[in-house]
Structure formats: C-alpha cells, structure tokens
Design a protein that fits this description.
The protein is mainly α and 166 residues long. The chain has one domain. The chain has 8 helices and no strands. Helix 1 runs antiparallel to helix 4, helix 1 packs across helix 6 and helix 2 packs antiparallel against helix 3. The longest helix is centred in the first third of the chain and has 29 residues.
C-alpha cells in the first residue's frame, strides 16, 4: 500500500483523536472544572471486596493529587485542550500523544473506563506509526528544524567524559 495513503489514514486517526481531546477539555476550560469529586470518588473505589482502584493509586490521589487539586484543576482541562490542538495541527505530535496517553492511563487507574481505552489505543497506534502520523501536519516541517537546532547545540556543548571511579 502507498505510504502516502497510510499517512493519510494516520492523519485521519490523529485528527479524530485531537477532536476527542478538544471536546473533553473545551467545556472544562469554559465552564470551569473541579476534580475534587472525581478524586474522592476514585479513592472511594479503592475500598471493598473488589476495588476498582488499586491501593497504591488511591494513596497517590489522597497524598499528592488532592492536596494539589487546584493545580490539577488547571492542568487537566488545559492539557486536554492543548493535546487536542497539537494533534489536529500535527505539531509536537509525539509529546501530545504521550501526554494524552498519560492522562488516559491516570483516568483508567482512577477507575474510569469510558472512552479511555479507545483513546489510549489510538495514541499507542499513532506512536508506532511514527513519521506516518506526522507526514500531513506541522511536524513535517518543524521536526527537521528542531533536529538541526539540537544537532548544532550538541556540537557547541559537547559532553564531558565521566570521571573514572576508584
């Protein structure tokens, strides 16, 4: 099959995934968002005979997420929105896919199935598609420029050899 056709297919999947993220984040940004109820609900799902949330994750939510819920209330909606925009534009596709997959994993670990498995699978497939997922998008032009800048920086800042241990 022609690689440009596959790139077009990956682009359709990437844009679809971006739309899903924008839809998830837009109303949270516009209408406001408070993750407290979600976090308390996830912690509650970690109890009983058949908990839906692992105790280690409930501990993380209780000790790290809840005390910082105001930060989470900003990160989740804006993260969802920015991941969606990046995927639709095809700019910084790999970081956007990784960030989206990370959010999906956290939502799954919190006991929320919903569309998270589907979105996570789409992100993983697109990560494996690599260049094909970025062919029709801004990364096609941005990645070579960034690679050139990175190579120049590495040349100007060579690594110093590690000291030998005694």
């Amino acid at each position: 099959m022609n690689s440009k056709w596959m790139a077009a297919l990956w682009t359709v999947l990437r844009v679809w995934l971006g739309v899903q993220w924008i839809q998830a984040g837009w109303h949270k940004v516009v209408d406001g968002f408070d993750a407290s109820g979600f976090l308390y609900g996830a912690i509650e799902k970690s109890t009983g005979d058949m908990p839906a949330v692992s105790s280690w994750y409930a501990g993380f939510l209780e000790n790290a997420a809840l005390p910082n819920v105001q930060v989470i209330n900003v990160l989740i909606p804006w993260g969802e929105l920015l991941v969606g925009i990046a995927l639709i534009a095809g700019v910084l596709t790999v970081p956007a896919l990784i960030a989206g997959a990370f959010m999906n994993l956290n939502f799954l670990w919190a006991g929320t199935i919903s569309t998270n498995p589907t979105l996570l699978l789409a992100a993983v497939v697109l990560l494996f598609a690599a260049k094909g997922a970025m062919y029709y998008g801004g990364d096609r032009y941005l990645v070579p420029v960034l690679a050139k800048k990175w190579a120049e920086w590495k040349q100007q800042h060579p690594r110093k050899p590690m000291p030998k241990s005694a």
